[in-house]
Amino acid sequence: MSLEGVASATTPTSRRPASSKKKAKRSHDDDDEATSPSAPGKRVCTIKRETPVDDDVKIESDDDDDDVDTNLDFCSICKQDGDLVCCDVCPRSFHLTCLNKREDQLPLDTWQCHECQHNLSDTHVQKVCRDLTKLRNKALTMRSILTGICSHPFAKPFLAPVADVEYYDDVVEYRMDLGEVSSRLDRHEYDGDDVVSNAFVRDVQLVWNNCRLFNDDNSGLARAANTLDADFHKMLQAAAATKNSTSRGAIRTKKQ
């Protein structure tokens, strides 16, 4: 897991890594009070910036421990970092250029990405699950599940080992990342009678658990880990359903 764009925790007992980016709130002096970002109960479209901003953009201080970075630090389209606009529903972030938008086209209140607006978030996992139901070779099942997870829109931070983040090894006892799971799969360390090895499930689960242990519960990384965890279990259920279907077919064949 690579904590791209995430700095170290401030104390040995702190789980929360501080974001290296500034969060900017869109604000315009000529907006009336009804549409002002400072209106009571009004959320604002958030942009994470690496570069200086104009005078009409208010900057939130990163010194506040309650200011949790709730979105990922890379663009969901090009997978690169930079100035990012944040979805208010899911952990995705985007470059304005990748969205073909200008900043003045963003709403002053909440903003949802295309995937959330059109309920497309489950499309990837649904396709993986459909493909799993067609598999009859158990040797390919774990590889197909892992490929589905690694190609997930939220998977990038979990593909490689965590960088040298201060205090990480004081908090996390056993490191694990999806790249290591893939290497163990190549070395046949998950071979056995089961279609999906318990050790395989344990190692993938450890990736999500380590992330949630080290990062704040509302951080973009933890939110991504929660989604990946849920989607991973959907894939496991699809694989289990395929196994049961194959077993019933074998029993019917013997009876005939």
Written account of the structure:
It is a single chain. By secondary structure, the protein is an alpha+beta fold. Among the domains are: 69-118, 2-Layer Sandwich (Herpes Virus-1); 119-242, Up-down Bundle (Histone Acetyltransferase, Chain A), CATH 1.20.920. It has 8 helices and 5 strands. The longest helix has 36 residues, at 220-255. Mean pLDDT is 76; it is low at 1-44, 55-65 and 247-254.
Summarize the structure.
This protein is α+β, with helices and mostly antiparallel strands and 256 residues long. Helices cover 38% and strands 7% of the residues.
Shape: globular
If helices are DSSP runs of H or I spanning 4 or more residues, what is the number of helices? 8
Summed over residues and divided by their number, the pLDDT gives a mean of 76
User: What strand order characterises the main sheet?
Assistant: 3-1-2-4-5
Q: For the terminal residues, how far apart are their CA atoms?
A: 51 Å
Organism: Aphanomyces astaci (Crayfish plague agent)
Pfam families: Bromodomain (PF00439), PHD (PF00628)
Protein name: PHD-type domain-containing protein
GO molecular function: DNA-binding transcription factor activity, RNA polymerase II-specific; zinc ion binding
